[in-house]
Amino acid sequence: MIKSIVLTQKEIGHDSHRFVLIMINGVISKRKTKKKIRDEYTWHKTIDRATLRWPTDGAQVVKHKQLILTSLPINCSWCNPQTGLSFGLEFGDLIKRKMGWIGESIESVKSMKIRDSLFQFITLGMIVSSALIIWKGLMCITGSESPVVVVLSESMEPGFQRGDILFLQMSKDPIRTGEIVVFNIQGRDIPIVHRVIEVHEQRQSGEVRILTKGDNNDVDDRMLYAQGQFWLKQEHIMGRAVGFLPYVGWATIIMTEKPIIKYILIGALGLLVITSKD
Amino acid sequence: MHSFGYRANALLTFAVTILALMCAIASLSDNLNTPSPSAQIEILNINWFQKQPHGNDEVSLTLNITADLQSLFTWNTKQLFIFVAAEYETPKNALNQVSLWDAIIPAKEFAKFSIHTSNKYRFIDQGHNLRSKEFNLTLHWHVMPKTGKMFANKIVMSGYRLPEDYR
Question: What is the pLDDT at residue B127?
């Protein structure tokens, strides 16, 4: 038998951390955040604490999950006695009392889970698509097909170490000696980050012939180029390094070298997104 | 809501944001530095000068490089990469840049130096245009930051000329 329902709004910290305590017959029945309450109940903002006396026949089940108080107590100043339909309640305990636990579990599966999982699915989609937007946006701004690369080799030490991140740009400016370029060689799947040491720009076609060398290497890169290739051309160049961030690329290196860690991480993140409630 | 995961996430996000901000500020602070570097390069000797069997000219030089690059160092400077390049025009190429010598300066105290060296990399033309060729020697520097944007600049020294004959 429900004699009274006490709703108490508690504020902790800033706005998003509001509690609503729901007490039925003096026993705490539920804690909800303000956000949830606002979604599920018609909640009056100005109220701080409200006590509802529960008339035995004052409540009835409407739409099989909503309890609406028809006769309202006088000391409830925040609801409208004239219309008598100002406060919709919807929570498990009351439903349980009216419908039994089977009805309640069906209800919770029907209403909460589907909505929640849909919401989480959308959140996940938002995260993935915003990451994609950032990546593609960087591609547009920098003009390079891979605007961020991780340094994998030690050939540019001590300037760039393994695990550092380089930001690339692909501008129209001609390539000159001293610049650090990222280039692709036919038959090699990993791009190389090295410094330009020689440039010959042809007068008529404007084409360039480039020779590169790693700062930490003793000889130039002719050995690395494809068989019979003496010079790099513009088409081999993926971009030139303009910015530098140390250590950040280690995560990528670890993940490519130990794929198990990658799967564990993805799994854990996915689980976190799916199970997180707020 | 106030679960461990939530707090850990908030803390991590905050820490990463602050770190990124500090990196950005460190990189931006490089702009406040107005360096005044100076350099002088002297060709002491033409060691040899010849035409390779397949037709390209090659020359070997001895250089004396004196420079004071201390003002390029800021608190965000990891190292300085410097190199000397020969720059010249030929009928075929509008620009030829050939790196002759380079060095890494790891700290400010090594940024004032005078070095006596022959060219570290081979000075080979694409063709045989080097006889009595006028060329520039350019000292380039690339500032590698601890984090952020890389800077580069150069000092051009003109008026060098190679001899008329192979030797």
Answer: 86
- How many cross-chain Cβ pairs, A to B, lie less than 8 Å apart? 90
- Integer-rounded Cα Rg, in Å, for chain A is 33
Query: Is A221 one of the annotated active-site residues of the chain?
Result: yes
Fold of the domain built from segment(s) A148-247 = Umud Fragment, subunit A (2.10.109)
Which segments of chain B does DSSP mark as H helices, in order?
4-29
Report pTM.
0.66
Co-location of B129 and B73 in the same domain: yes
Domain membership flag for residue B12: yes
What would the two tokens of residue A160 be?
A: 């760039």
For residue A102, name the pLDDT band (cuts at 50, 70, 90). low
- For the ranges A13-22, A219-228, B12-21, B35-44, the lowest mean pLDDT is seen at A13-22
Domain that holds residue B134: 35-161
* Cβ-based contacts of A34 with chain B (< 8 Å): none
Number of structural domains (chain B) is: 2
Is residue A94's pLDDT more than 70?
Answer: no
